[in-house]
## 1
Amino acid sequence: MNSVEFGVAEVLSYDYTYNYFPTDSPYNNTNSLFSLKVRLCGIDHNSSELIVKPSNIKFKQIPLVGEFILMFKTLNQQSTSLLRRHQWYYISTIDLQSSINENMSPGLSGILSQDQIDNVVPGETFNRKSISALQPYEGDYLFEGRNGNSIRFSSTINITKLKDKYYNKLPSWSSSSDDSNPITIISNGRKSLPNKEFIVENIIEDNSSIYLTSTQNIPNLKLGNTNSPNSLSKFLPNESQFANSQFIGIADRVILKAKTDVAIIDSPVAIILNTTGDIKLGSDSADVSLVHGDVLLNILQKILNQLGQPIQCGTNVGTFIDSSNITAAQTQFKELLSSTYFMNKNTY
C-alpha cells in the first residue's frame, strides 16, 4: 500500500466531535478528538462507514452532516518503525453548492429515498441561513465563518486603475498611497444579499468590527456631533480622510477591562470622550456632579470683587483690615482653569 491514499466521503454523524471522553471511559476518545463518522464515496453505493479524524486539530473547520470532505489515509498514532497502522484524516469540506453557510448534498454516497434525503438535518443545533460571501480582491486572504463573520487580510485597492467593472463590489476603504499597503478587517454580523451576491464590510452597518489600517481611510466613518460648536472636528477636521495607521473598533457596546493592572489611554494630541449621555467617574453609580470651571471662576470672581468694595455700617464706611488673602486669591484665579482638560457644559 502507498503511504498516502486519498478519498472523498459524506459526513453521516459526529461520533467524538463535540464531546470529550477521558482515558478511563469506555468511549475514550483522547486519540480521536473531533472525529466524524463518514461514508466513503466509492465506485459502488453504500460503501463502508469510517471514523475519520481532522488532519490539523489546531485549525478546524467542522463539517455538517450531509457535507462532503476531502480526506487521506496514512499512519496513525499506533504505528512503529516495524508495524504500519493506518487512519483516515479529513482536510476540508468540499463546497459543492458554493455556499458560505452550508454545502449539504446528502445521499450521494449511498442509495437513499427522496424522503430520507429531505429529512437529513445538518446537526442538532445548526440553523441554515442565506449568507453572502465577501467580495475578494487581488491578493486577499479571506477567512469566513458560516454565519457572516470573517477576517480579511487585504490591501489598498486602487480603483482608478480599473478600466471596467473588474470587481462586483468596490472596497469600503480607500487610500492615495501605495496599493500594497495592508489592511486587516475583523467583521462580525453583516446583512446578506440574494442569489449569493458578494458583500463588502461596512463599518457602520455591520454588527461589530475591528479595522487595522496602514494608510487607508474609511469614508463612511463619522464621529461626534459635527454641528456642535465644540465638535470633534477641532481635532479631527475630517476623520474619514486620516491617512496614517488606525485602530478602529465599533459595536453597540464596547467594554475594555484590565484584570490585574492599569488601563492606559495615551495620546500626544488629545483624548476625547464623546457622548450624549452621562460620563461616570469612579463607579457606575457615581451621582455627584462635576463643576463647570468657567462658571465657578465667574462666581468666585464676583464674590471677591464684592469683598473688595467698601463696607458701610450706618454712617460709617470702612474696609477689611487685611485684604492680602483677597489679593492672593485674585492672583491664583489664573490657575483655576486648565489649559488642557475640557468638558462639555451640561446643566440640569
## 2
Amino acid sequence: MTEAEKIADRICRGLPNIKSGTLRFWGSWFGRPHDNWHQVVACEASDLVLRVRFNEGEVLSVWSPRGGVFDDRTFRIQNAQRVRWEWFYYGRPKIADNLYFEDFSRSGVVVIAETNVDWYVADLQPDGSEAAVEIL
C-alpha cells in the first residue's frame, strides 16, 4: 500500500468528523485567511496520487503525500511532490469554462505556484518550510 493509499484510508475512516475550514498550501491561503469553509466529503487514492473531494465539488489532488494528521481538530499533509486545488467559480454553473486551479510543484526546497484565475492577479507565495496542505 502506498503512502497516498494509507492517507486516503485514514481520512475515509475519520469521515464525517474530519476538520473543516480554510485551505492553505505551503503557507499560501486559498482566498483570504479564514474567509471560506471547505468540508471533506470523500477521499481516494490511486498509486501515488491522493484525491480529496469537498462539499462544493472541489477536488484536492496531492502527488506523493508524506506525513500528516487527520482528525476533527487537524487536517495536515506535511509534504508532497505536487498539490493541485480545483474548484468551479462559486455561484456560476459547474462547467469546464468555470473550472479554476491553483497548482503547486515542489523541487527541493522551492515550491512553484501556477493558477488559471483570470479575474484578479493571484499573489501565490508558497513557502517550502510550511506544510503542503492544511485546513485551518
## 3
Amino acid sequence: MRLNKICIIPALGKNVYSPKGDLESWGGSTLLEWKISQAKEANVFDKIIISSPSSKVISLAKKKKIHFIKRNDKDNLDKLYRDTAKKFKNSTIVFLSVTFPFISPLIIKNFLSEYAKSDQKSGFTYIKKNEYYYYKNKPLNFNIDQYIKSRRDIPFVKKIVPGIIAFNSNNFIKNKNIFQSKNFFHKIKWLDSLEVNTPIDLNIFNLLILEYFKKKN
C-alpha cells in the first residue's frame, strides 16, 4: 500500500530568537516562506501543511494557499506528533523545521527516497561527530586506559539534527514514539546542520546564503 507523504511545517509567530518568530526576514522573504519554497521545490509531498497557533502565520498560509492546522499554543512536541499521526493515518509524516534554512530541496528529496528504500519506520537527519564525549564524568566513546588517539580514530557519534524527521503514522499511534529500536539515518554536512537559535545566528547565517546557493547550483 502506498503511503501518502504529508509534510508538516511547524511555525511560530514569535520565539526565543526573534519577536517575529518564523516570520523573521531571510533571503528576501521570511524563514517560513523559505522553508515552504524548499518543500515545494523538493516535489515529493502529496500535501504541505503549516501547523501553528499564530494568527499571523495562518494568514500567511492562506495568502500562499498552503493548507494549515491551527493548534493550541500550549501543545508540546509529543502532542503535536500524536495529533498529526491520528489526523493522517496510513501516511508518512515528514516534519520540516523552519529553523534549519540550509536543509535544501535536494536533501529533502534524497532523504525521502532513501528512507522509502530502508523499510524503517522512523528517519532522521544527522551529522557525524568525531569528538571526545563524556557523560556523568565517564567517557562514552573512548577508553582512558589506552593511549590517546586522534579524533579521527575514535568511534564517531551520530548527532540527530531535527531538520527532517519522518515517521510512519500508524506505527507512531501503536508505539507512541518517533524513535524506534532501528531507525533510518541520513547524513548531512555541517552547513546543512546549522540552526537558527539566537538573533546573532540570523545575522551570521545570512552571510552564508551565498555558499548555500553555490551548493544548490
